[in-house]
Amino acid sequence: MITPEKLFYQRIVSEWKYNFGAWRTVIDWTVALYILIPFLAFSGYQYLEWWKTTPLWLEPVPFSFFALASLLFAWSGTIRVFLKEADQLFLWNRHKWINTLMGKGIGYSIFLNLVTSVFFFSLLAPFLIGHYRMDIDKLILLGFITFLAKVVLGLSKQLLALIFPGFKQWIILRVLFLFSSLLFVTCIPYLLLNRVLCILCIFILFLVILILIRRRLTIRGSFLPDVERENSERLKYVTFLLKMSGITIKNPKKQKKQPWIFRNSKLIFHQRTAVNGLVEFGIKSMLRNKQRIQLYISFVAICLLAVLGFSTLKWLVWLILAFILTNFVSADWKEAIQSDFMRILPWKKEHLYLATRKFLFLMTLPGLIIISAAMGFQTFSWLGAIAVLPVSVGVAFFMSYIVAFWCQVVSGGRGC
């Protein structure tokens, strides 16, 4: 006999199988042997080196930087409720079943947030303990406060999305982010100096979580938004993995009356050619999608942290990240060029190839310049930051040439 508990566990198992299948699609034995295993081995070696020797670039970094990083990590918290479209037919009148699914989904999300928090602070431990001389108990308290804040922010963002739609939600979320940032940066150093205040803060956050969970389970009229959010969350990481492997999945999207940027834009290129038209379509398609821009910024930030974190083979890591960033941008180009509208038109292969190169170069260059300037400044101060810029332009051009050529070969001349 099916019960809400069994139904929830079936959905958990189904999602893990789905994610595992996506990982197997991306990481075959060649990728694992030549890329993943060497990367994990080198990362493990670098992590052990951080425990032995503090990186020189950490000297001018204040502790408030790590407090802000903890806030950004806490802000990324999400809460899942594991509802599906079919529940509207079969569970609509069974409120107890829906509440059980939602409650277990929230508990599962809290557990995942705990696991990611342990992993996050394990990565920060060499810096906080080695450079800032933080005690183990203080590190645990900081990690636990961040974990609870991650849950609170995840529940709060979800409730605000249900209660305040539209522009009000946008304003309130920004205010919440600024308020949380100020609290983390200013209060965390003082809390760590007083263990009683730390424990009191943990107790307050725990009570807030209980109140927010109760409010989340009792709110009505949120079924369709919950299902839409679940679809987006379920496909978020899988879509990213499959895009990197060359497979396109269309995410459920909200229909907007007008784009958030370039609403009344004119032509980007004055010279009207087929290549420029394709590139302009790809650029506007990417920049008008808020999710793509946020993902691009997040990816550049990850690459930035990666290149700054390695003390050895920094230039090799920089070249590898330039190639990965170009591949990342190619996923957006593929989604744009394979849209229903663009597939109607009979584009020539040489036009698609040249447009692919130009788009990849233009959209890779901003992120690569930021990464290169930060690496040059870390290595050779301001002179290095300036000198590496023309080099990054050449590397972006070279990487766009390689990736465009590979896309041309794999797709049979269809652009990517």
TrEMBL record:
Keywords: Membrane, Transmembrane, Transmembrane helix. InterPro entries: EcsB_ABC. GO terms for cellular component: membrane. It holds the Pfam family EcsB. The chain crosses the membrane at residues 21-43, 63-83, 104-129, 141-164, 171-191, 197-213, 293-310, 316-333, 359-377, 383-407. This is Uncharacterized protein. It comes from Formimonas warabiya.
